[in-house]
Amino acid sequence: MTTMHAPIRARRLCPRLAAAGMRAGLLAGLVIAMPAWIATAGAQTQTQTQTRSGTQATAYVADIDDLPLMPGLAEVAGAGIVFDKPSGRIVETYAQGALARAEVAAFYAATLPQLGWRPRGGDVYTREGERLSLVFLGVDGDLVVRFTLEPE
Questions:
Q1: Could you tell me the pTM of the whole model?
Q2: 72 close to 51: Cβ distance less than 8 angstroms
Q3: How far is Cα 109 from Cα 131, in angstroms, rounded to an integer?
């Protein structure tokens, strides 16, 4: 006759008891790991939201994957639209920040050509059949920027 260890025998005789033990172990592991996970997530968020330090990870506009979001601007949640049509996509999204219009315009005038966008005047850029327009709303110090991407 084979001798079984107590935990194995308990698992075979009462699977519900064994499952409860596994759940308790899993819960204990989550309780132990949760503070470390929260600290890591907080550190990542802090790294991404540092402003103008030069060490910041570049943030991008959510609906326009390769459009960098200028440090100091934050996307306005739920304000944009995305529409796909046969001739191309139309995306309109908004970002807000305590910045001056000239500062934001200068940032995008320097950044967008490095990403293949050609300036067309008046805060309008084109690339590969698409037109990107920047429209400034509000006042310096409480600026809203509307980014519109559409087929050319």
A1: 0.63
A2: yes
A3: 14
pLDDT at residue 20 in the model: 55
Rg, C-alpha atoms of the chain: 26
Q: Which residues contact 151 (CB under 8 A, 6 or more apart)?
A: 87, 88, 89, 90, 129, 130, 131
Residue with the bigger pLDDT between 78 and 18: it is 78
The DSSP 8-state label assigned to residue 118 in this structure reads E
Helix intervals (H) in the chain: 6-13, 15-49, 101-111
In the chain, where the domains are located? 6-49, 74-151
The overall average pLDDT reported for the chain is 77
The answer, yes or no, to whether residue 90 has pLDDT greater than 60, is: yes
Q: Which of 16-25, 48-57, 81-90 has the highest mean pLDDT?
A: 81-90
Alpha-carbon dihedral sign for residues 67, 71, 72, 76: positive
> How far apart are the C-alpha atoms of 115 and 148, rounded to whole Å?
17
Report whether 123 contacts 100 (CB < 8 A). Answer: no
53: exposed, middle or buried (C-beta count within 10 Å: 0-12, 13-18, 19+)?
A: exposed
Q: List all residues 6 or more positions away from 18 whose beta carbon is below 8 Å from its beta carbon.
A: 10, 11
Does residue 55 register a pLDDT over 80? no
